[in-house]
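Ticket #4471: structure export looks truncated?
Reporter: QA, pipeline team
Priority: medium

Steps to reproduce: submit the single chain below to the structure queue and open the exported record.
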Amino acid sequence: MRFSASRFGVLAGIAVFCIPLQVLAENTDDQYTTVLEEVIVTATKREVALQDLALSVGVLTGDQLQDIAAIDLEDFWRMIPSVNVKDGPFGGNSVIIRGLSDSASFNSPESLNAFYVDDTAITYVNGLFATAGSVAMVDVERVEVLRGPQGTLVGANAMGGAIRVITNEPDVAAPFYRAEANLSKTAHGGWNYGGQAVANQPTGENSAIRLAAFYQDDDGFIDDIGLQRNNINDRQRVGARLSWLWQATDRFEVLARVYGESIEDGGYDYTDPIGKPGLGLVTEGDYQIALLSPEFRDEDLGIASLRLRYTFDWGELYSATNWYQKELEQAYDWSKELYFDFFGIWNPAPFGGNNKQEDFSQELRISSSGESVFNWLGGLYYLNQDYKSKAIGATPGLLEKCPPCGFLIPPDEVVLNTQDRQKRKDLALFGEFSWRFAERWEATIGGRWYRIERDLISEGYFGPFPTDDSVSGDSDDFVPKASLSWDVSDETMIYGLVSQGFRPGQFNNAPSREVCGARAIIDSDDLTNYEFGVKSRLADGRLSINATLFNIDWNDIQTNLFKPECGFVFLENAGRATSNGLEVDFSWLVTDSFSLLGGFGYNEAKLKDALPDPDVDAPAGTRIPNVPHWTASLAGTWNFRWAGQYAGYLRADVQYVGSRTTLFDQSPDYLTLSKLDAYTLVNFRIGGDVGNWRTEIFADNLFDETADLFCCRYDVETTIARPRTLGIRAIWVYD
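Actual output as written to the record:
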C-alpha cells in the first residue's frame, strides 16, 4: 500500500510520538501533564537547557525510545528532520544529516557524520566492509542529534552533524529494576521475540552499579529462490552494559562503563525485482531475491570507558578515556557484479572477508561553570586507531564455463585476496569562549586545531593486479565557529551561527593508482555552514516551536569515480556542492492528557560543479544521492483512565520520507534504476498500567508499506523496510 505526501494529513489524527524536543512533565498522578518540562542537553560539552542553546539539536528521551521499542538507529531516525540513513549493501548503513551524503557507491569514503556513545566515538573506516556503528538503544537516557557541522567540539567526521547516545548512569539514591519481554509476527515472515532487563543497585552511600542486558531474535521476511531458503534475513542480537559510579567526595566522581554486543545476520534486507533471468530465476513480489551464494554478517562490538570529573567553585575538570573495538565477518553474493554479459554466463561468486578495528582515545578539558558573563571551555583530544581488513572473492566453476576468462581469473579461481592495515593518529586542541555582553545578547567564538597522521599497508591481488603497497600522509588545519544569540523575550530566542567541518583525506589502493592513474591520497573535504534559528515557548509553557534555516557550502567533495577502461572504482575530490534547507520541530500539550509532537524538514542538496568523470552523467545541479526534499513526522498521545483507576494510553506516529535518487549518474538507465519513491510509515500502540506492570499491543508499519530504502550501483537489489509487524509487549518496573 503506497502513501503519498498528500495522505500524510489524513493520518495526523492518530499521530504520536515523533521529533520530541521536549519531554512532557508529569504531575502527581503520574498520568496527566500540565507544562512542557525543560530538557537539559550536553551537546556543547556542558549542561545547557535546550531552548537556550544557539544550535539546532533534536532530542529523543529514554522514555520516548522505550515507548517505540527502539533497538537501533533505524528505529528512530525518521523522527528527526533533515536526517536520513543510507542502508546499503553488505549490511552497512551511514547517517545523512542536512544533505551530506557520499556517492553511495561500492567503496564509500569515511562517514560524514559522527556517532558517539557517551564520550566514545563509534566510527567506520574506508574499505569494502565499512559499516556504521550499531549500538543497541537499551537503558538510554536520551539521544541528541546535533544538526550542522561540529568540527569545533567534536572534530573530524562531523561535517553534517553528530548523533550522541547518552546512557543512564548508576543512581546512588535508590534501587531500580526493570524487565521487558516482547513477542511479534512479521508479515511475509515469521515470529520475533526478545527481552531486556535493567538493574540499578546502590553499593554504599556514595556508589552504585547498573546492569543492562538484552536479547532480540527477529525472523526474516525475504525468500531466496536461488538457494531455496525462506526468511534469510533473520537477526539475533545480544548484549550487556555494566556501569559503576563512585562519588568519592562532593567534588570528585568516577564513572566506569563496559559494554559488549554481538549481532548475527543470516542475510541482508534487500530484494531483487529482476532476479537472474539467464538462470530462469525470476523473482516475484516484493520480498524475493535470487542468490547463488549464501550470505551472512556477524559483528562483535566492545566499549570500555572511564570518566573522571572534579568540580571547582568556578568550573569543572573533565577526563574521558575510551576504548572501542569492533570485529566484523561477512559474506556477499558477487555473481551479479561478475556477470559476463558477452558470454551470457551467470556463475556463483562468493565474496567475503573480515575486519577488526580498535580505537583508543583520550579527551581532557576544563571549563567554567557557565554562570557568569564570561564563560569558556578548552580541551585536548588524542586518538590512536588501528584497522585491519581481509577480503576474498572466488568464482568457482567459471573457467569451465568461460575459458577465455582466464586472462582475468587465476587458475585457483580466487579473483580477489587482499589484506589491508590502516593506522591513524589524531591530535587536537579546541576551545570556546562566550560573552554575555548585554542583558539579552550573547556572542560565542570557538575553534579547533587538528593534526591527523595516517598509514596504509596493503598486500595481495585483485585479478591480475597486485595490491602490495604502503603509503602515508598527514594533514593539519584550523576550523572556527561563531554565533550570536538574542533573547527577544523570556519565551523567544533568535540566533545566527557560522561553523565549519571537515573529513580527513583517504587512500586509493595500488591497482587503481597503477591502472587508472588515481592519486595515492586525496585531499580532505570541508564545508562552511550558515544558519539562522528561532526557539520559542508559547501558550504558558504548553507549546514549543523551533525553526532553523541553513545554507552549506561543501568543497573538494570526496566521491567515487569509475573508469570502464581500467575497471576500478577509486576516490577523488570532485568540486563543490550546496545544501539549503529548513527544519521545524514542535511540541504541543493540547490538553492535560493529549499531546501533539511533530516536525518537518526541507532539503535542496545539489552539485555546484559537474563530476570530473566522463562516464558519469552528473552535471552541475544534480541532486546529492540519498537526500529527499521532504521529511516529516506528526504524532499524538492520549492518556486516559479505565475501570476508574487504571492508567491507559493510545499512541500512533506517522513518518514520511520523500523521493530521492541513490546515484549521482543522471543518464536515463541509471536514473530509472536509482530513483526511489516516497513512503509513509504508520505505527500504532495501545496499552495500560496495572500496579508495576504495563502491557501493550502494537502494530509497526500498520499498512504494510513496501518502503524502498536504498538501491546500490551495480545491480537493482533494493533494501526495504520491515513489513507490518503485530505484537505484544509486557514491562515490569520496581523503584
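Status: closed, not a bug. The export was complete when the record was re-opened. Leaving a note from the reviewer for reference: Residues 510-516 form the longest helix (7 residues).
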